[in-house]
Design brief:
There is one protein chain. By secondary structure, the protein is of the alpha+beta class. The protein folds into 2 domains: 7-59, Beta Barrel (Thrombin, subunit H); 63-157, Methane Monooxygenase Hydroxylase, Chain G, domain 1 (Up-down Bundle), CATH 1.20.58.1290. Helix content is 51%, strand content 21%. It has 6 helices and 5 strands; from the N terminus they run ββββαβααααα. Strands 4-3-2-1-5 form a 5-stranded antiparallel sheet. β3 and β4 (44-48) form a beta hairpin. α3 packs parallel to α5 and α4 (100-116) crosses α5 (121-142).
Length: 160
């Protein structure tokens, strides 16, 4: 169980801080919820404490893992499916995993693909989501601003 002040990653939303744990009655059921705040946002998300394992919440990566993710951003792009629909589904699954290395791979590949050709609107949204997830985790793990983390990603991918 996490506590107030813990930095966590909530897959498909990104990294944030648990502001507190509150008991709420929703649909007639009393449950405890993490109150989760995303950086650079006024949005608070309520996550049921008892769903912690099933939704894939995990602690923010340490600096060594962040370094590995940056190295992955610098590495050669991996082969993606030529069919945009399958490629979209594959990339969506990687983002849903909550694994920083898979998120970094999606961001790297889509950023480089965007240089060569226009991405579909769905893939642009996927790229934006992936960047938001990756930036938020880098920010919290490495104590950086949003802009510093974003620039670090762009530089690593070679997208300056």
């Amino acid at each position: 169980m996490f506590s107030a002040g813990d930095k966590i990653v909530y897959p498909m939303h990104g990294a944030g801080i648990i502001c507190g744990i509150e008991e709420r009655k929703i649909l007639g059921q009393k449950k405890e919820y993490y109150i989760f705040k995303l950086p650079c946002s006024e949005i608070n998300i309520m996550i049921p404490v008892d769903s912690e394992a099933t939704v894939g919440i995990r602690p923010v990566a340490d600096r060594a893992v962040i370094s590995d993710a940056i190295n992955l951003l610098q590495a050669e792009s991996t082969e993606m499916d030529g069919n945009w629909n399958r490629r979209y589904r594959d990339n969506m699954e990687k983002l849903k995993s909550g694994d920083i290395m898979q998120v970094a791979e999606v961001v790297r590949n889509l950023m480089r693909m965007e240089i060569k050709k226009n991405l579909s609107s769905g893939e642009k949204k996927l790229l934006d989501s992936g960047k938001q997830i990756l930036i938020s985790e880098i920010m919290l793990a490495a104590d950086m601003t949003w802009r510093e983390a974003e620039e670090m990603i762009k530089k690593a991918v070679g997208h300056c």
